[in-house]
Amino acid sequence: MPQNPAATAFLATRRSHPAKMYSGPTPDRAALEPILAAALRVPDHGKLEPWRLIVLRKPALARLADLAEEHALSVGAPADQVAKARGQFDWGQLVVVVLSSPKPSEKVPVSEQILSAGALCLGLVNAAEAAGWGANWLSGWPSHDPAFIARAYGATEGETVAGMIHIGTAGAEGADRPRPDPARIVTWVET
């Protein structure tokens, strides 16, 4: 049976690194392109490419922080949500926005296409972490607001944000969070 112990060990200890704790450099375009290429190797039934990616650097994030605050105020969001709306744009250094962009298909249900975008998010986190960067999959309420994502990302009808993947230099390792107990959530059916 073929094995890849290094990949198995990586996946067994994989963890996200809190984006608020990033400092130092982010990958440049040359370093980011192979990460994106690796992440795009996800299940894509029908080869529909039901997603698209938007890479945001600090100047774009500053503009989006202002836009998020403006939008939050325009919809009457409370102060804590206004702060949260602009927060991850303010402290982000490099973000890859994964838009779920389902395509018309008689064979591939929209739900599978949306799951493909989710798989892309995790693939991006894993590829960035495997390349030695910190990565964190976030969203926040503006990511689920159709008016905001239309203005911020040019999202069209039916497109949604699957995730905002922050990538950068991870800070100090903190304690890992508790992980699910497989014995509690896995059911084995053998007959």
Rounded mean pLDDT is: 93
Quick one: CATH superfamily?
NADH Oxidase
- Any idea how many domains? 1
- What does the largest sheet look like? 4 strands, antiparallel
Any guess at the CATH architecture? 3-Layer(aba) Sandwich
Strand neighbour order, sheet with most strands? 1-2-4-3
Radius of gyration computed on alpha carbons: 18 Å
Strand content: 5-15%
Shape: globular
Tally of contiguous helical segments: 7
The class by helix and strand makeup works out as alpha+beta
The ordered string of helix (H) and strand (E) elements is HHEHHEHEHEH
Helix content: 40-55%
Low-confidence stretches: none
CATH class: Alpha Beta
**How far apart are the first and last residues' alpha carbons, in Å?**
24 Å
What is the number of beta strands?
A: 4
CATH topology: NADH Oxidase
What can you tell me about this protein's structure?
The protein has 191 residues and is an alpha+beta fold. The chain has a single domain, classed as NADH Oxidase (3-Layer(aba) Sandwich). It has helices at residues 5-13, 29-39, 58-74, 79-91, 110-130, 146-153, 182-185, and strands spanning 51-57, 94-100, 134-138, 160-168. It has a four-stranded antiparallel β-sheet, with helices on both faces. 30% of the residues are buried. The mean pLDDT is 93.
Describe the structure concisely for a colleague.
The protein is an alpha+beta fold. The protein contains 7 helices and 4 strands.
Can you tag this structure with a few keywords?
191 residues; alpha+beta; NADH Oxidase; 4-stranded antiparallel beta sheet; 7 helices; globular
